């Protein structure tokens, strides 16, 4: 099988390594078959998409809607490279799955708008598939309604031209969408389990996702949540995209 490429943007080593380990576990891959590039500190050169089964983009504290003047050089460089890559995979209809920050990566293409109109605090939300989502080859393996972990400051306010809305939640209308037949983005985190989100609550305490005094209550709510279905998105993506 040709390997998959995992693109990460987390500068915090504990969060970055936990995310990579979670994606490996949920996708059913080993490090040989899921190569990681950390864009916050590495440059990604030109890609021949035929060398890869598919590409997965993880989440992190970058926001495409951040004021340009407040973005670090690493964020500006990484976002520019991801914009080019998004254009490349959409034009080729090559397998791509962007989780959380993947919404920012794909959501600004072709008239799409990503802004701060639909943020969600860290925790579990109820996600419901649309009719198109129920028929989708990737999201359609999930129940019509399921719980998923989220935590984001920005979201899609208007889909790119040709984008198909696949899922939403009460507080965020676009929880997943598809462009073409093989390019997907989810706002929710398919890789997160309870231990994973508790770790992120602690690591990102001072990143503006919540007031620090709310941390204990967020941890308690996360531990009480029942989130079982989202990891199937990653294993299903591998099933759909793997190429000899």
TrEMBL record:
One of its GO terms (cellular component) is cytosol. InterPro entries: ChyE-like, Class_I_gatase-like, GATASE. Residues 49-192 form the Glutamine amidotransferase domain. GO terms for molecular function: transferase activity. It comes from the Bacteria. The keyword Chloroplast does not apply. Pfam families: GATase (PF00117). CDD domains: GATase1_1. Keywords: Glutamine amidotransferase, Transferase. Transmembrane segments: none annotated. Signal peptide: none annotated. NCBIfam families: PRK07567.1. This is Glutamine amidotransferase. It comes from Nocardioides flavescens.
